[in-house]
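Pilot study result, target chain (242 residues):
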Amino acid sequence: MSIVTVGALAVGIVSVLSMVSVSPAVFTIEYLRTTAKRETGKNLPGGAVVLASIAGFGAVVPTFYLTSDIGGAGLAGMTLTSAVYIHILAVPVEEIVKSSVAYFIGSGYRLSPIGYAVAGAFVGLGFSFGENAMYILSDGILGGGLVQTVLERSVVASFHVLLSTVAGYHIGMAKRRLRAIDAVKGISVAVSVHMAYNLTASVSGVASVAQKGTVLVMFIGLLWMSVQRVGEYSLKGFVGSG
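Predicted structure:
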């Protein structure tokens, strides 16, 4: 079997497993999308969906170098230097990159705040697919923990989607109100919650329980916030301009 064949096979396997790992996030997005459509009567433009997903996937590249050195080893038992590195530098950059993508897509398609939220969700989905692929390859296939990695990344995928949804909504509000503080608020929430998640994973001895418990609580809370925001603007805006 040639190297090219082996490489193609590996890419195919990683891609399939990555799709499996983001499937819970797909259901989350579908719920948010249909709720927005029911409240506003409009779908997010197809071009925005495709662009957001692809751009989200591409956003993995500028953030990869910030986390690649500790991503394969996991967060438990981090040194002080690496802990500061991922919490103070990597997390804000990751959330800002995703939020910037949502901003440009929302501006290009003239979306309402709800539209920005749904666009942000698709950015989070694309980002999750790319990031999960890296973890599945490094931790799962090469590291020998394939099943565990796929299951863990499936939780993180929904987490990314919800963070990007909240940030996207506030960016949309900033655009509508011409108040930058709204965008700062949304991105700050995404960064803070993301940091809290990483911190629970870095606590030796209770990492697994704390991490899963924190994810569950934040997942429910953020989903509730997203739905409330959709309802709040049900009669005031549209997901897309046409």
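One observation from the pilot: Residues 146-177 form the longest helix (32 residues). A full batch analysis is planned for the follow-on phase.
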